[in-house]
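re: ur question from earlier - yeah i can do the single chain one, its not a big deal. heres the input i used so u can compare w yours
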Amino acid sequence: MKKVLFISYYWPPSGGSGVQRPLKFVKYLRDFGWEPIVFTVSNGEYPELDPSLAKEIPKGIKIIYSKIFEPYTYYKKFVGQKKEDKINPNFFTQEKKGWKEKLAIWIRSNFFIPDARVAWVKPSIKKLTQYCKENQVDVIITTGPPHSAHLIGLVVKENTGIPWIADFRDPWTNIDFYSNLSLTQWADAKHRKLEKKVLQNADKVLMVGETWGKELEEIGKRSVTIISNGFDPDDFDQSIIDLDAKFSIVHLGMFSKGRNHEVLWKALSQLCNENQDFANDLELCFYGKYDISAVEYMNKYKLKNFTKFHSYIPHHEIVKVQKRAQVLFLSVNNTPNVKGIITGKIYEYLAVNRPILCIGDTTGDAAKVIQETKSGYISGFEDLETLKSNISQLYTQYKNPSLAIKSNDIEKYSRKYLTGMLAQSLDSVIKPVN
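and the output i got, formated as tokens:
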């Protein structure tokens, strides 16, 4: 069987969105004639932990672990956090920073390029170059962020001649927080030089969405293949779960400041004031990390009695929450790269056939997915009246009761189908046997 070396920082017990794509690819690659070998870290600093995901790793998969220098361990000590505290992925954009946080961000931005895992690169290159010379590896694939993974693939390819695919789950210099990195002119130039080098030297480049794919094509002056994120049908059994009794609007995953749009709170407040039945039925739920601005808006618009915050829960429990929800809330960051943002949760929302309420760019990639699948309602970042109308339509259906949806043409977002697309990309770069 052909063998692919899969280099990914995120791997179980990591939880959250970053681990889903590499884990699901590895889960299904054998079905398409590829045996994956995973290279990952043994001491990663992850935003969330979800040991239950280890159950999805296929039996007999070879996993090579590497212990790395993790600067976030020292960052937590520096700013007074506990060892067991999880890293906040949005600490670049949080507004309330002390001098320690500001100094740490400046150091991280200018001395850890392309990211805080750069110390993983050199020892990994040495280890994997030796491994590839002693073992069969037909293709290397790196997935980022962290984009340090791509630097590993770049040099291992140079050392061994093995074809290499760079898979981007997010942009590099076009990422939404890039402007918050406190970069010197030298550091910015180095980021852009490394990004271009990766793009121009990989045998194939993958991206999760059309808009970001076009941006990478402009930077690298080459074609980019789109393989979206998706959902795993195995995660969604056919058992029937009773829907929430309340008119529940549920957000799953990180609710950062960039996703917390005041228009949501204003719309719900006005609807509660205008309709007592709506106020009696409403329940707004957040699962996962949330920015303090959510609490501030909740208090400002007097929605405390309607709002519930829950901590992160394992992925298999998240699925149950999604199936119970009356409405699934999708909020897109209002940033310069907004058109390309397609949060991974949108595909799992599709899988449970619950209506989606989205705030985002009405012409962006996320909106296109919702429109093409006829899975929900979309309004702009400041479009109060459309948002109120969308919520009112959903509430009317809830009261009938007929709040249901049947998403169309979602099979192309199945993780197994997408892994088949990945296998085609792997086949396209493999060197023919003479």
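The mean pLDDT is 91. not sure if urs matches, ping me
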